[in-house]
From TrEMBL:
HAMAP family: His_ammonia_lyase. It comes from the Bacteria. There is a cross-link at residues 143-145 (5-imidazolinone (Ala-Gly)). The lineage of its organism: Bacteria, Bacillati, Actinomycetota, Actinomycetes, Kitasatosporales. Contains an active site 4-methylidene-imidazol-5-one (MIO), which is formed autocatalytically by cyclization and dehydration of residues Cys-Ser-Gly. CDD domains: PAL-HAL. It catalyses: L-histidine = trans-urocanate + NH4(+). The modification 2,3-didehydroalanine (Ser) is found at residue 144. SUPFAM superfamilies: L-aspartase-like. The gene is hutH. The keyword Cytoplasm applies. This is Histidine ammonia-lyase.
Amino acid sequence: MHTVVLGVAGVSAADVVAVARGDARVELSPEALEALAASRAVIDALAAEPVPVYGVSTGFGALATRHISPDLRTQLQRNIVRSHAAGMGPLVEREVVRALMFLRLKTVCSGRTGVRPEVAQTMADLLNASITPAVHEYGSLGCSGDLAPLSHCALTLMGEGEAAGPDGTVRPAAELLAEHGIKPVELREKEGLALLNGTDGMLGMLIMAIDDLERLYRSADITAALSLEALLGTAKVLAPELHAIRPHPGQAAAAANMLKVLAGSGLTGHHQDDSPRVQDAYSVRCAPQVAGAGRDTLAHARVVAERELAAAVDNPVVLAGGTSHDGVVGGGRVESNGNFHGAPVAYVLDFLAVAVADLGSIAERRTDRLLDKNRSHGLPPFLADDAGVDSGLMIAQYTQAALVSELKRLAVPASADSIPSSAMQEDHVSMGWSAARKLRTAVGNLTRIIAVELYAATRGIELRQGLEPAPASRAVIDAARAAGVEGPGPDRFLAPDLAAAEAFVGDGGLLAAAESVTGALD
């Protein structure tokens, strides 16, 4: 099994995906353990001082004015976890929780949080034992981090609350820890706060959305090319010199992908055979421009994610050297900051939701064109076998349209909202968790929308009898049929076909089939 070794310099997006989706093991490097011990020494020294230090010897948020005596500090850290584990609603997905836990551990290992090495090791042990805390849908405002979701994770670390074991059954966390020989932690000064104060949930969901969208944007280029073939469109608009004069890199990549898929097609270039067409419709002709803009948005989101992966998000943080109002001990100090604010991540989560909505929208327009006998250039109405007796794909487009309509609602930005909290101490919040949750829904919808276009376009191509599609298109059609995505014929129970198409797109089967002919697509 793949192992990810955590150091002090952050992790890669691939590491996050490997742990969240691939159950990779997690190990702490000697450098991380050394950094953990060094930062903890600073906290221990400050805890012994009479001067109040936020998160070490004070209350939290609007209650930070109270100095907490040493005999109450363990209770203080335990209480913050219990009180902040206030999530409600359905449980979020296992991969989201694993990403959340791993990214919090990544920050802990940076040596900026003051958490003891044994606490960090227990966090790794939970991941390696496939123990997944029960984290609920609602509870995070995306400022002071994803507080409620992270609190539910910390609660499991303490042996409290509920979690799912390797079999997915939700049970008392204490039972699961005992079965795997993991000793619950007793949190000390600052540790409760350090486990809760990060953008880890929204960042984890951003990284997994990027991973999905890198596949889906290439998949959308393939289905756009298939639709162009089925509509007897022209590939001339994909010429590199046309895209070079508007030098957006995503646009050039999308056009190049479509050209690769269409190489050798016997269906393109017939756009004037049945009725004069000087140009194809926008949904066909402008496919690279729309998909390309989304690609460039995705590239920007990737830059933000990489910066956040290199960050140590906590408040307060442990810094080396200098002086501060909190005091200096052995060259280390603790400083309050606002790095937990989720705005940088929230903005790109919302930005991606806009791009996803537009990509889904243009794909649906191509599907609708394939089904309309007045615009499909010779295809039967609704691609039906015996139109009138058969309805063909009429309602598949309804389903696709419903998904697109929801995408448009999901494109409304969450990050434009803010509701003050904590007695106006936290008076501006990012709503980044909400932005991430709606993007996950949008990505799932986009997968289904592309699947419907695939279903319609492959059927349309096969109905063009006597014309041979491109070799890459033929490979896609053959692979789709082998995967249970049926071809033309009389009406049948359609939902299983659409489910097979969704799986074919979602698990990468579509992309693999095309690339078996084209080579790697950009």
